Structures are given as C-alpha cells and as structure tokens.
C-alpha cells in the first residue's frame, strides 16, 4: 500500500488521507469546531458573531426540547419511572419498552 504525506504526516489509507486533508483545510479556514456565543439552552436560536441564527446542526431546530408540554412530560416520566441506565435489550429488557412498542 502506498504511503501519502499529508500536511507533514505519513498516511497509508487513501480515504483517511483525503478526510484528514479536508478537516485540516476546514480548521485552517476557521469553519470547524465553531462555538456559539450563548448557552445551548437557547436552542434552536444561537448567536454566532453577534448574529441571532437558527442552528440546524442539532435535531432541535424546531425548538421542541424547550416546549413546555414536552419538558413537563419528561419531568413526569422521570418522577414516575426514574432514570434508567442504558443497557442492551439483548441483556435485559424493561416492561416499559413492551408497553411503548405495543
């Protein structure tokens, strides 16, 4: 397998070399790893460079995570059922999953 040199790094995998180049160019251009000026709790609206914009980089561009009814429902579910740690259903399933799926 031929080794490529990308930005001073020796890389064997051609696809990885292309991805590495693209990421490095994005970072150099200042378009990666952006940071909003405000807290994430204001989603979907964020402030970037002192401008109010809608963030489409998360699945909450409709603002549902801050909708009062959904927040109240989440609080009720935690109060009723607690917080379950994630586990594979192959290992152990909860009766709540069956109720939800049926």
How would you explain this protein's 3D organization?
It comes from Polaromonas vacuolata. It is an enzyme of class 2 (transferase). GO terms for molecular function: 8-amino-7-oxononanoate synthase activity. Its EC number is 2.3.1.47. It is a single chain. Helices cover 36% and strands 14% of the residues. It has helices at residues 14-29, 68-81, 95-101, and strands spanning 4-6, 9-11, 45-48, 51-54.
Quick recap:
The protein has 3 helices and 4 strands. The protein is an alpha+beta fold and 102 residues long. Among the domains are: 1-33; 64-101, no CATH class.
The biggest sheet, with number of strands, parallel, antiparallel or mixed sense and barrel status, is:
2 strands, antiparallel
Beginning-to-end CA distance, first to last residue: 52 Å
The residue ranges in which pLDDT falls below 50 over 5 or more consecutive positions are none
Strand order of the largest sheet: 1-2
Proportion of beta-strand residues:
5-15%
- Using only C-alpha atoms, the radius of gyration works out to 22 Å
Helix content: 25-40%
Count the DSSP helices: 3
Envelope shape? flat
The sequence of SSEs as H and E is EEHEEHH
- What oligomerization state is this entry in? single chain
- Helix and strand content put the structural class at alpha+beta
Q: Summarize model confidence as the mean pLDDT.
A: 76
Enzyme class: transferase
EC number: 2.3.1.47
GO molecular function, one term: 8-amino-7-oxononanoate synthase activity
Keywords: Acyltransferase, Transferase
């Amino acid at each position: 397998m031929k080794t490529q040199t990308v930005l001073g790094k020796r890389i064997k995998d051609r696809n990885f070399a292309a991805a590495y180049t693209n990421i490095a160019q994005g970072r150099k251009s200042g378009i990666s790893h952006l940071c909003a000026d405000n807290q994430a709790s204001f989603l979907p609206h964020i402030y970037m460079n002192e401008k109010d914009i809608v963030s489409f980089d998360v699945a909450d561009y409709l603002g549902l995570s801050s909708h009062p009814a959904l927040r109240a429902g989440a609080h009720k579910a935690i109060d009723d059922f607690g917080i379950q740690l994630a586990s594979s259903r192959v290992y152990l399933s909860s009766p709540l999953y069956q109720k939800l799926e049926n």
